[in-house]
What we know:
- The chain is an all-alpha fold.
- The chain is built from three helices and no strands.
- The chain is about 50% helix and about 0% strand.
- The longest helix is centred in the middle third of the chain and has 28 residues, at about 35-65.
- The termini are far apart.
Amino acid sequence: MYYSAKRKSFLFNQGYSYKAIRxxxxxxxxxxxxxxxxxxxxxxxxxxxxxxxxxxxxxxTKQIVxxxxxxQRPVNPSNKLKHELFKTYRK
Length: 91
């Protein structure tokens, strides 16, 4: 409770106001389906949608071709420094 009181005072000091919600409107509704057939119908719909997304993903990944060339960073010899400030400090 200490944290909630501290948070409340912080929000109030920042100019916010809030109201704690005690009960949600649809809290009493039962989220389950009334029959087993409705449950199975929903499950079939979800599974078929998942399969179609996997097919799209496979199609997309087949279009991507890995690069055969590698990037190479240019190497500067240690005796050649580019900036003039380095020339004064070089021994």
